Amino acid sequence: MKSISVNLKSSKYDIDIENGLLDDVGFEIRKIYKGTKIAVVTDENVYKLYGKTVEKSLEKYSFKPHLVILKPGEDSKSIDTLQNLYDNFLEFRLSRTDLIIALGGGVIGDLTGFAAATYLRGIDYVQIPTTLLAQIDSSIGGKVAVNLRQGKNLIGSFYQPKKVIIDPLAIKTLPDEQLKAGISEVIKYACIKDEQFFNYLMEIKTKKDLFNSLEHIIYTCCNIKKEIVEIDEKDNDIRMILNFGHTLAHALEKHFDYKITHGQAVAIGMHYITNKTEELGYTKQGSKYELEKLLENFNINYNLPNVDMEEIREYVLLDKKNMSGNLNLVILRKIGEAFIQSVPAERINLFFS
Ligand SMILES: NC(=O)c1ccc[n+]([C@@H]2O[C@H](COP(=O)([O-])OP(=O)(O)OC[C@H]3O[C@@H](n4cnc5c(N)ncnc54)[C@H](O)[C@@H]3O)[C@@H](O)[C@H]2O)c1
């Protein structure tokens, strides 16, 4: 088993990665939790595929799991569903010394993590991510949140899990669109931090290659995220580098009313900004071409759809990451190296026009 230890000022936990690990969830949880009651939050799709496996494994180690099965999709990351979770926890008489498991994609992870952070002023939770995006990104680093009518992730906290259990084999059942969304974020890690990893990804030509490499890919991405989060847990500085391609991506997601996957929007955002910054002389010539080749290898579209740039600029300025009138834009120096450029609001046309 590959294991990564995340060492933060306030907490320390392991990310365990191994093919088939879902069968051993009970054994892994026993290492960190001596009690019996566990609330397992999941969605209908994930429950059908993996719910029984996890339930059986927990029971084998004398746990008493109480399943809460939600509707799949972003709409479940809401205040209403949060209330529903609290109702279930209370009915199950879950106490502060019990445990919660988030079994699913980023929606389940973010929502359940926020419920765990707030229920009885905080109860331990474990992330068992089942989408590629959740395995390499959202399950690590403790950002938990729910959406409001007014926007995404407007209510949230930093609340670290006690453990992250990753079974790369779970990715085999993921719909193609979701797989590509995860790959976009994999490519993002390579672009900002690891040229060697970028070249490694370039060698993947078939789906078979991809699935054979998944354990290594997930491990590499988790390791990059761990290193960044250890330096800047609360996203005040270097953690912002993880937002490469995300400025335009957030605007596109909003424009398309979230009918475009986050990963697809990130692919377009990474390509768009690299094209611009190469033109402007910030980025080494040829980087855009390298990025295009890699995205094409995975059949990921990177072309900017027909959108009104005026509207995009307005979204960009509203984005919550714009601090004190300046936009923190993540720019590639070259493939494998990124930096954060503070751009005054009046100069954003330079990048988004
Ligand atoms: N906390 C963070 O740091 C962070 C980072 C990035 C994204 N996010 C959040 O993550 C969310 C998106 O997460 P997501 O992309 O995982 O979406 P998701 O949780 O909606 O999952 C996508 C779909 O895949 C299904 N699914 C999950 N696992 C499956 C499997 N193994 N096989 C088949 N189907 C499966 C789900 O039921 C769902 O229909 C957004 O809300 C976003 O804001 C959070």
TrEMBL record:
Top-level EC class as recorded in UniProt: lyase
EC number: 4.2.3.4
Domain 3-dehydroquinate synthase N-terminal: 68-180
Catalysed reactions, semicolon-separated: 7-phospho-2-dehydro-3-deoxy-D-arabino-heptonate = 3-dehydroquinate + phosphate
Cofactor note: Binds 1 divalent metal cation per subunit. Can use either Co(2+) or Zn(2+).
CDD domains membership: DHQS
Pfam families linked to this entry: DHQ_synthase (PF01761), DHQS_C (PF24621)
Domain 3-dehydroquinate synthase C-terminal residue range list: 182-322
Binding-site residues, NAD(+): G106, V107, I108, G109, D110, T130, T131, K143, K152
InterPro entries: Dehydroquinate_synthase (IPR050071), DHQ_synth_AroB (IPR016037), DHQ_synth_fam (IPR030963), DHQS/DOIS_N (IPR030960), DHQS_C (IPR056179)
Cofactor(s), names only, from the UniProt record: NAD(+); Co(2+); Zn(2+)
Signal sequence annotation: none
SUPFAM superfamilies named among the record's database cross-references: Dehydroquinate synthase-like (SSF56796)
Keywords associated with the record: Amino-acid biosynthesis, Aromatic amino acid biosynthesis, Cobalt, Cytoplasm, Lyase, Metal-binding, NAD, Nucleotide-binding, Zinc
Binding of Zn(2+), residues: E185, H246, H262
A cellular component annotation (GO) from this entry: cytoplasm
Swiss-Prot/TrEMBL GO biological process terms: amino acid biosynthetic process; aromatic amino acid family biosynthetic process; chorismate biosynthetic process
MF GO annotations: 3-dehydroquinate synthase activity; metal ion binding; nucleotide binding
Keyword Amino-acid biosynthesis set for record: yes
NCBIfam families linked: aroB
Role, per record: Catalyzes the conversion of 3-deoxy-D-arabino-heptulosonate 7-phosphate (DAHP) to dehydroquinate (DHQ).
Family per similarity comment: Belongs to the sugar phosphate cyclases superfamily. Dehydroquinate synthase family.
Alphabetical list of PANTHER family matching this protein: 3-DEHYDROQUINATE SYNTHASE (PTHR43622)
Protein name: 3-dehydroquinate synthase
Taxonomic source organism: Soehngenia longivitae
Designated gene of the protein: aroB
